[in-house]
Design a protein that fits this description.
Blueprint lengths: L2 E7 L5 H9 L7 E8 L3 E2 L2 E2 L2 E6 L3 H16 L2 E9 L1 E3 L4 E9 L2 H18 L2 E7 L2 E4 L4 H12 L1
Parallel strand pairs: 1-6
Antiparallel strand pairs: 2-8, 3-4, 5-7, 5-9, 6-8, 9-10
């Protein structure tokens, strides 16, 4: 039995509640890996006052569901939770949660990293930062593309 939950929301999330939901009632679980991404106060040498995230409702959830399905085929995992916030966020705010459960830590670590690498590069989100120089759209970083490429080679 595989459990997944995908949410795109403006509201913040409680990591401990999400991890409890991921683990609930599944005695097979021996490992949970979790990644939480937050808004930084600096990027590319400039101060960041806020970040605004946009998405295409429906299409974004479908894209993430596909990424989760790929992770399930590739790794021995029992469940995954992906929560991504949209809207206007201040530095230190939580943006994304990726949590994965499995029998052993290795599969959870790999699947969590895989999901995050695909989210950073393939999920349809657009980020705009407010800086002292004005608003700017955030492009994917070369290191994000390099991280994704290693999964395609293995």
């Amino acid at each position: 039995m595989f459990h997944s939950h995908i949410a795109i929301q403006t509201a913040d999330f409680d990591v401990s509640q999400e991890l409890a939901a991921l683990r609930a009632g599944d005695a097979r679980i021996g490992a949970v890996c979790c990644f939480v991404g937050t808004v930084r106060d600096r990027n590319d040498g400039s101060a960041v006052a806020s970040m605004e995230l946009e998405h295409y409702p429906g299409m974004t959830e479908k894209s993430i569901a596909g990424i989760v399905a790929q992770a399930r085929e590739r790794f021995e995992i029992y469940g995954a939770r992906v929560i991504h916030r949209v809207g206007l966020l201040a530095p230190e705010a939580q943006i994304v949660l990726v949590a994965v459960s499995s029998a052993h830590r290795g599969q959870s670590f790999l699947a969590c990293e895989y999901l995050m690498d695909y989210l950073k590069t393939q999920a349809p989100f657009w980020k705009k930062e407010q800086t002292p120089e004005g608003a700017r759209w955030v492009d994917a970083r070369v290191c994000d593309d390099e991280a994704l490429a290693r999964w395609e080679q293995s």
